[in-house]
Specification:
360 residues, alpha+beta, flat
């Protein structure tokens, strides 16, 4: 299963469109999907055959047992009772058989979803990429990147994540990863049983952030962090306290843009540099992100040359879950699923083009 797509768009580096992807599918990827399905069948069929053999043996044993009871038993009631018992046994075996085959198919389709996500990301990869695309379904970005972002207070919050993706695009290394930052809220409940008092203790997760992290390098170098914290937080007790869990640094910087100020609070120790970075043109581009994603967005211009944006409620995991291929291959349905996935992944790369930080 190749990590890299063979078809690459020539000319200027622009965001690939649906026509590019359709051409790629017709010329290359539908053959790759055929190979994927062939490999899945090779893995499923032997396991399914074993399940079918066990199933048939169970049926044969049941029939032989019923015939034996018909010959040996004297009382019809006993025969009927054993028949009901065997019918129940047969039903249980049937359920186990169907569950086994379904479990095998789901496992293989899960792998296919992950492979499809990786392949479509690779479709956007630079043709002359010097570093191969890196994708790990069960890993998140490293602690060093999270600490460098310096956004969420890890002294208070726990962190988890998945679907770490690292790809060269437009001669830059872009990073995607699902991230969750949460509190472990300890709970307890008192109850009585047999005249004794017991206390049940457990912990609930209270999510501060559950979404996607996107990071890429900048041309310019910042001497201090610049934080853009969203104003559109929900009015719940947890959300009203969210600023306690954000590890931003600096003083609030007021910008002369009322629309932008309604959406974000800006913090930095270097007001002059902040106003240079957040030019009118860049502010308008950040405002345009709402056309892509209306969810809460945390933006950090890191000290040095890295930029990161965290979008709440958008997850690679959900993109993969929406990849629902039919059990038996159908070209029309297959392309429809792939096109929808392409559009969702395309929006992630479109963030880079919308901000256009290289030319800001």
């Amino acid at each position: 299963m190749s990590n890299k797509s063979e078809y690459k768009r020539e000319g200027n580096m622009n965001l690939k469109n649906e026509q590019d992807f359709e051409k790629y599918y017709e010329e290359n990827y539908q053959l790759q999907m055929k190979r994927y399905y062939h490999e899945i069948r090779k893995r499923i069929i032997p396991k399914a055959v074993i399940s079918i053999i066990v199933f048939i043996i169970a049926i044969v044993v049941s029939i032989l047992l019923i015939n034996y009871l018909n010959m040996k038993a004297n009382a019809n009631q006993i025969i009927n009772d054993f028949r009901l018992l065997i019918l129940g046994y047969f039903t249980i075996i049937s359920i186990i058989f169907l569950f086994s085959v379904n479990k095998i198919a789901k496992k293989e389709l899960k792998v296919l979803k992950e492979t499809t996500y990786r392949d479509i990301v690779a479709f956007f990869e630079d043709a002359n990429s010097k570093k191969a695309l890196s994708y790990h379904a069960n890993k998140r970005i490293g602690d060093d990147a999270i600490n460098a972002m310096g956004l969420f207070n890890l002294n208070v919050l726990k962190c988890s994540g998945s679907d770490y993706t690292y790809v060269q695009y437009d001669n830059r290394m872009l990073c995607f990863s699902d991230l969750q930052f949460y509190l472990l809220e300890k709970r307890e409940k008192e109850f009585h049983k047999n005249g004794k008092k017991y206390i049940k203790k457990w912990s609930d997760k209270k999510f501060i952030f559950d979404g996607i992290y996107i990071g890429f390098p900048l041309n310019q170098k910042n001497t201090s962090q610049i934080y853009l914290i969203p104003n559109n937080l929900k009015y719940t007790l947890l959300q009203s306290r969210i600023m306690d869990y954000i590890k931003y640094q600096g003083d609030q910087v007021v910008l002369n843009n009322s629309e932008f100020s309604k959406k974000y609070k800006v913090y930095s120790y270097n007001e002059e540099q902040t106003k240079q970075v957040l030019s009118l043109g860049l502010i308008e581009k950040i405002n345009k992100l709402d056309e892509l994603y209306k969810e809460k967005k945390y933006i950090v211009f890191k000290e040095g040359t890295r930029f990161s944006i965290c979008i709440d409620g958008i997850k690679i995991k959900d993109i993969k879950e929406d990849i629902k291929f039919p059990m038996f291959r159908n070209k029309y349905r297959e392309y429809k699923v792939l096109k929808n996935t392409f559009e969702e992944i395309s929006k992630l790369f479109e963030i880079y083009h919308t901000l256009d930080l290289e030319n800001n």
